[in-house]
Amino acid sequence: MVSLTVHGIKVPVEPQEVSPVIWQALHSQTYEAKEAKWISKAVKQRDRVLELGSGIGIITALIAKIPEVKVWAFEANPATAALAERVIAANDLENVRFSQGILTAGPPRAFTFYVREDLWMSSVERNQGPYERELLIVSADIDRFIARHEINVLVMDIEGAEKELLQHASLPGIERIFLELHDHLYGLEGIRHITLALSAKGFAYDPRGSRGPCVLFAKNDGPREYEDAEDVA
What we know:
Layout: E1 3-6, E2 9-12, H1 20-27, H2 33-42, E3 48-52, H3 58-64, E4 70-75, H4 78-90, E5 96-100, E6 103-104, E7 110-115, E8 133-138, E9 140-141, H5 142-149, E10 153-156, H6 162-168, E11 176-180, H7 183-200, E12 204-205, E13 214-218
Parallel strand pairs: 3-4, 3-10, 4-5, 6-9, 10-11
Antiparallel strand pairs: 1-2, 7-8, 11-13, 12-13
Helix pairs in contact: 2-3, 6-7
């Protein structure tokens, strides 16, 4: 078993388990590099974090290494979820509870999930590109999950499904949301819908933890701390 180190996380994975594009990204340290840099701005000590779209678990592991944090992680693709669980085990992280499935707003529904060669392109969006196979997955209610586990931070990279979820979920008790936007799927109109929906729930765009499509929305203010001097120029 090959073991890579990506953003300080041990990643035991064989080349044939991921696409050539993913393998190259892992080797070059570009895999989820933006998220890896900025996640510490969204997650703080003792947070209770729900992560949607964990991929192979690198960001999950980075979150779990923050002191006294508890993580509940979801990944829809069973093969990818198995890789993520292997990464969590390789890094001796016992504060992560992993589930294969989908959380959405409202009662359970059946979704078709499209598995693609490049795992980070797999999604419920059929028109996102060629896919290898379809999976039928029944969702669970995200608001009930959040309330049951007293989640206060939501992290997500769910390939466009964030638009519907953030518009319709109540998100009780959530203080911060860190997500990757996918404007190539829903355009500026979709970003407008997301922003207005979160504003109505009391969230504001927080530039301290945002860069490009990786953005932080927060309810509570705090010290105006930035990563780089250029951010406040």
